[in-house]
Amino acid sequence: MFDPRTQASMVSTTVTHLHLLRHGAVEAPSERTVRGQLDVPLSPDGERQTALLAGFCERALGGLVPPVSGILTSDLQRARPLAEQVAARLGVAVAIEPALREQSMGAWEGKPWRVLNELDPAGVEDYWTRYLDARPGGGESVRELSARVEAWWARSRERLENGRWILVTHIGVIRVFLAHAFGVGLDQSLRFTPEVASHTHLMLAEAGAVIGALGERPWLGRDS
């Protein structure tokens, strides 16, 4: 805690801590397949990763000040187990937040890229050449995903302000949120590549955003 005189000269005195957790691995198909909002379960390895990441959160976040206020999670089944396990370890509540689900890939979901190149070659080319604005399979563009996440943040920011919150979500959501927080163009969002079962820590204040960790997986190599 700073003294009153120092606090008076600071640009901002409140900080909101967001801990963005990407879910664990899902079942790997025999060939690269589009998932998006397809509600696929965790693989056995993903279940192991989930337990290890939950243990890390208990050790690393359990005694912090301010304490964890709660957990917000995507409603997809690959995300919820992590939210539930972390909540049980930290003794906080979980709230389902559909706005944190992955980018919709529309009619492409569940189809291998090999098949899509045969069924919708123009759409696949459009996706790779107009990444921000293409709507794969009639789903969401990256700009629409970003607008969804920004709208959620705009209506939630006041409620979450000055607390510490855990968000269990997906790589697309993490990418666009980081781009928004740091004021970089969405065309730079692909530079953020947090792995599955990873932890990213953001500190948000009036003066701007600070990153404490990006895609860390400190649980690697642990047995419990």
Question: How would you describe the overall organization of this protein?
Answer:
- It is a single chain.
- By secondary structure, this protein is α/β, with parallel strands linked by helices.
- It has a domain at 14-27 and 43-103 and 140-216: Rossmann fold (3-Layer(aba) Sandwich).
- The chain is 37% helix and 17% strand.
- It is built from 7 helices and 6 strands; from the N terminus they run αβαβαβαααβαββ.
- It has a 6-stranded mixed β-sheet with strand order 3-2-4-1-5-6, with helices on both faces.
- Helix 3 links the parallel strand 2 (68-73) and strand 3 (94-96).
- Helix 2 (44-61) packs parallel to helix 3 (80-90), helix 4 (113-119) packs across helix 5 (121-129) and helix 6 (142-160) crosses helix 7 (171-182).
- The longest helix is centred in the C-terminal third of the chain and has 19 residues, at 142-160.
- The chain is globular, with a radius of gyration of 18 Å.
- The two termini are 35 Å apart.
Question: What brief labels describe this structure?
Answer:
Rossmann fold; 6-stranded mixed β-sheet; single chain; 37% helix; 224 residues; 7 helices; alpha/beta
Q: What's the CATH first level of the domain at 14-27 and 43-103 and 140-216? A: Alpha Beta
> Which sequence of SSEs, written as H and E, runs from N to C?
HEHEHEHHHEHEE
- Mind telling me the CATH superfamily name of the domain at 14-27 and 43-103 and 140-216? Phosphoglycerate mutase-like
- Compute the number of helices: 7
Radius of gyration: 18 Å
Biggest sheet overview = 6 strands, mixed
Question: What would you call the shape?
Answer: globular
Strand line-up in the sheet with most strands: 3-2-4-1-5-6
Strand segment tally: 6
Uncertain ranges: 5-11
Q: What is the distance, rounded to the nearest whole angstrom, between the alpha carbons of the first and last residues?
A: 35 Å
**Percentage of residues in helical conformation:** 25-40%
* Oligomeric description of these chains: single chain
Report the CATH topology name of the domain at 14-27 and 43-103 and 140-216.
Rossmann fold
Sheet/helix structural class:
alpha/beta
Portion in strands: 15-25%
CATH-scheme architecture of the domain at 14-27 and 43-103 and 140-216: 3-Layer(aba) Sandwich
Instruction: Report the average pLDDT across residues.
Output: 92
